[in-house]
Design brief:
Length: about 130
Amino acid sequence: MQFQVPQFIEVEDKVIGPFTFRQFLYLAGGTGLSVVAYRLLPIYMAALIILPVAALALALAFYRVNDKPFIEVLEAAFTYATKSKLYLWKKQPPKPQETAAKVTEGPVVGPKLSESKLKELAWSLDVNEKLNRR
């Protein structure tokens, strides 16, 4: 039995003329808001609302950034602006009390190695070095 596998599922269908349903909603919403502003406000005040609304509606409908819809870019920008940020590169200088305490402790003295332990350590290092070369 053969089955047909759907192809091009990421491409939206043109539903209303040359526009997809989503493009049509963005354009209709922008047009509707512009008409309401034009009817209720004087023309000079309405223009201050109509121009940004029309630009946003056109960008939402047609503009793509790095092959992604503009709405995803707006969502990412909003999330970035409202999310708390962690700045790791802002190091704080050490407190003066801590540095003074470290200086007064004196030099750190390691454990003393006997001659046999030192030879054993040198031999194990030589053996590991020869194994790593192979």
